[in-house]
């Protein structure tokens, strides 16, 4: 027939065009992304909030903290120095710092210039309210040179304001400066740990850099061990490298394992080498899915590729639709077999695409991308199975093995025997009781950390680095907006009073805010006024031998200092910890952030911002987890809407009752899978729900097969069994993934497929059908 010659040619033209498009998309390398944040909703319409998040996230994505530990302090410093020089020469890092190379003249200049603006609130209040105590402490400091080290000599700062500013700087956790080497060292576990900080040229979402950094770290560990030293490292780059390696492994064994299993199944069942051509639709489907993703999104995420590799088992179902008829057609011919099964095959594609594309409308980029990949892949597999594969199998006489058919006949007889003893309504009631019990035990859990299958070694090292150094940055921070700098500092001071209470209660380790660096202009003026009264109290300094003229000259210098604002305070080297917190002028006002350290209870933070104008808590992690829960509801709603569309689509070929039954059975299978998660103690997550929604899309295909019963019930059941096995070989392997989200997804689909196969026979027109 003309169509048997025309269809393959038209499809080959389409295939060449898609291959050309794929080649153009990959012309600059693989358009893959490892950025996890691209898969989560961008529900931040505020540009300032986005800017603040990027500013806070950049150190996590580009910086690496390394501790070099050795029982001998000097040896630890030596190894850290060698390591730092090697890393700097590697070309992977923008900056590698193992010691402090302070600009002492600049430090002295900033301290002298900021004596009024940078004095801490505690010291400022003492000078204003208790000048006698202030002078007495200064006398003690001058009399006892061991009370502290000051960068500014006494003759330049008789009142000791610079020393107080220097001593009130935020402490870097448990890390102390080693004066001799300039290294930052912490002592713990009987070792001296030298801190090394490295900033990479790219970020953690680069597809090559994290792996290169991980390899360099591994080589450095070996180098350090030769000197008896130990290395501990913490960085988002290491998690990214592990994620990429894990994705590569899982794509290999999920895709490879499913491929090998399906090929063996085809060979064992059909006993013809050419039947392996049934895998062509799978390859075409993967190609169409990848091209569609890159065309719509500009790239494809590696997680889409991992989950998309499970499409193999679904795509091979299409050729199985007519290959399985070889048990009833004698002789079997490819084109006639296709014509018999084409209506059911087309309905399967339509219902599956409706099911997948319904998820594309959720506000979750991860689901959207996976849905587009899967729907496009199924279209490609369908076109290949309908237009090309029958031509490739032309002339093949299939004489399939009889043992699969005997298994199917046996299963059908067992079912019939069961129904004679236990009617369908009773079975349904028992099944619903099973579902009720499982749903009672089911708990919901939505946490973006389920997407990261970090090995225990990385987590333990990160915890060790945090414990030894005292650095425990949090993902939450406060964003403060104001009309001007003075109002901004006032609002940060009001927030700081509340955060100080959390620090005193050990609920928070500490925080950084700009009002700690520079005081309000009004406070600077109060300090000037207090200096005018200071001569009444400085007699103890005169008794110590300090010339009155020197004190008078210093007070005059202090009175002449200009009022410092935030911009001026941020110019000096002492401002380095605060510099990233300043967002500057924004929309006619100004904005800045308050960063947090060592948070024990994130729920306490939201209360701190209440009734404080212009103060906003930015908790991206918490917001995302709430979005996960909302997305579960919207995905379920969209799925129910898609089921209504599928029923409407199936009314014409099967009638209203048949269409309703075909859709009800997959929904019941999904409900049973959900209950099984409860009985197994597994949580309901967004990805397990996504898996169940896929089950409803895939299972409609099984119900249609059993409804049509082309070739008889046993042959149709065998076709359903083969389709379920091939699909399970793909999705089932995901259940053993080391990424919790992927594993949960694979488990829910595997359970759903098992229930779908068991319930599919009730789609037939039987008196005992449900």
Automatic annotation (TrEMBL):
Transmembrane helix keyword on record: yes
What keyword terms does UniProt attach to this protein?
Cell membrane, Membrane, Transmembrane, Transmembrane helix
InterPro entries linked to this entry = MMPL_dom, Mycobact_MmpL
Membrane topology per record = Multi-pass membrane protein
Q: Which Pfam families match?
A: MMPL
Provide the protein's localization.
Cell membrane
For this protein, the parts annotated as crossing the membrane are 251-269, 276-297, 344-364, 370-393, 425-442, 638-656, 686-705, 717-736, 742-764
The record, for Gene3D superfamilies, names:
Multidrug efflux transporter AcrB transmembrane domain (1.20.1640.10)
All copies of domain Membrane transport protein MMPL, residue ranges:
183-425
GO cellular component terms given for this protein = plasma membrane
What is the protein's name according to its record?
Answer: MMPL family transporter
Organism in which the protein naturally occurs = Pseudomonas pergaminensis
């Amino acid at each position: 027939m003309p169509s048997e010659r025309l269809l393959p040619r038209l499809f080959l033209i389409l295939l060449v065009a898609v291959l050309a498009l794929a080649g153009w998309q990959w012309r600059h390398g693989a358009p893959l992304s490892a950025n996890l944040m691209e898969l989560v909703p961008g529900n931040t319409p505020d540009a300032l909030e986005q800017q603040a998040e990027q500013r806070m996230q950049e150190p996590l994505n580009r910086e690496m903290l390394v501790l070099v530990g050795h029982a001998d302090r000097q040896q630890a410093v030596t190894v850290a120095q060698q390591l730092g020089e090697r890393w700097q020469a590697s070309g992977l890092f923008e900056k590698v710092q193992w010691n402090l190379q302070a600009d002492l003249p600049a430090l002295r200049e900033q301290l002298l210039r900021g004596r009024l603006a940078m004095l801490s609130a505690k010291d400022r209040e003492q000078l204003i309210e208790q000048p006698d105590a202030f002078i007495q402490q200064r006398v003690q400091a001058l009399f006892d040179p061991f009370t502290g080290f000051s960068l500014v000599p006494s003759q330049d700062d008789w009142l000791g304001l610079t020393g107080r500013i220097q001593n009130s700087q935020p402490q870097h956790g448990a890390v102390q400066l080693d004066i001799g080497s300039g290294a930052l060292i912490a002592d713990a576990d009987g070792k001296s740990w030298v801190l090394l900080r490295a900033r990479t040229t790219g970020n953690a979402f680069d597809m090559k850099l994290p792996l290169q950094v991980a390899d360099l770290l591994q080589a450095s560990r070996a180098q350090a061990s030769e000197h008896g030293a130990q290395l501990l490292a913490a960085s988002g780059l290491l998690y990214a490298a592990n994620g990429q390696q894990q994705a590569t492994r899982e794509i290999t064994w999920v895709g490879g394992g499913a491929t090998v299993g399906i090929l063996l199944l085809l060979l064992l069942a059909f006993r013809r080498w050419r039947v392996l051509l049934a895998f062509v639709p799978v390859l075409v489907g993967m190609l169409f899915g990848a091209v569609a993703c890159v065309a719509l999104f500009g790239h494809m995420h590696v997680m889409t590729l991992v989950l998309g590799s499970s499409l193999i088992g679904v795509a091979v179902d299409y050729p199985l639709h007519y290959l399985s008829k070889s048990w009833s057609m004698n002789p079997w011919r490819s084109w006639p077999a296709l014509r018999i099964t084409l209506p059911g095959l087309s309905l399967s594609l339509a219902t599956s695409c409706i099911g997948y594309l319904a998820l594309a409308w959720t506000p979750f980029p991860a689901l959207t991308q996976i849905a587009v990949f899967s729907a496009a892949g199924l279209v490609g597999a369908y076109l290949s199975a309908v237009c090309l594969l029958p031509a490739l199998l032309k002339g093949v006489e299939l004489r399939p093995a009889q043992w699969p058919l005997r298994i199917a006949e046996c299963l059908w007889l067992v079912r019939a025997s069961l129904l004679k003893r236990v009617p369908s309504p009773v079975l349904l009631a028992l099944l619903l009781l099973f579902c009720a019990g499982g749903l009672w035990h089911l708990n919901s859990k939505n946490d973006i950390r389920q997407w990261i299958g970090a090995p225990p070694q990385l987590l333990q090292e990160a915890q060790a680095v945090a414990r030894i150094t005292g650095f425990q940055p949090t993902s939450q921070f406060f964003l403060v907006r104001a009309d001007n700098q003075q109002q901004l500092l006032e609002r940060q001071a009001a927030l700081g009073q509340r955060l100080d209470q959390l620090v005193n209660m050990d609920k928070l380790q500490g925080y950084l805010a700009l009002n700690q660096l520079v005081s309000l202009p009004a406070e600077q003026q109060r300090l000037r006024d207090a200096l005018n009264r200071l001569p009444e109290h400085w007699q103890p300094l005169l008794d110590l031998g300090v010339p009155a003229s020197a004190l008078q000259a210093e007070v005059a210098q202090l009175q002449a200092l200009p009022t410092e604002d935030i911009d001026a305070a941020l110019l000096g080297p002492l401002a380095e910890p605060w510099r990233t917190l300043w967002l500057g002028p924004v929309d006619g006002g100004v904005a800045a952030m308050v960063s947090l350290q060592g948070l024990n209870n994130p729920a306490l933070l939201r209360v701190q911002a209440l009734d404080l104008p212009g103060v906003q808590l930015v908790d991206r992690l918490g917001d995302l987890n709430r979005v996960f829960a909302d997305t579960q509801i919207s995905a379920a709603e969209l799925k129910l809407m898609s089921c209504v569309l599928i029923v409407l689509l199936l009314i014409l070929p099967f009638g209203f009752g048949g269409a309703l039954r075909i859709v009800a059975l997959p929904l019941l299978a999904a409900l049973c899978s959900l209950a099984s998660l409860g009985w197994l103690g597994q949580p309901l997550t967004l990805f397990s729900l996504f898996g169940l929604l896929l089950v409803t899309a895939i299972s409609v295909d099984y119900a249609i097969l059993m409804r049509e019963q082309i070739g008889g019930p046993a042959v149709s059941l065998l076709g359903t069994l083969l389709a379920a096995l091939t699909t399970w070989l793909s999705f089932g392997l995901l259940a053993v993934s080391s990424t919790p989200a992927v594993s949960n997804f694979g488990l829910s689909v595997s359970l759903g497929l098992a229930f779908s196969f068991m319930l599919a026979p009730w789609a037939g027109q039987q008196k005992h059908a449900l």
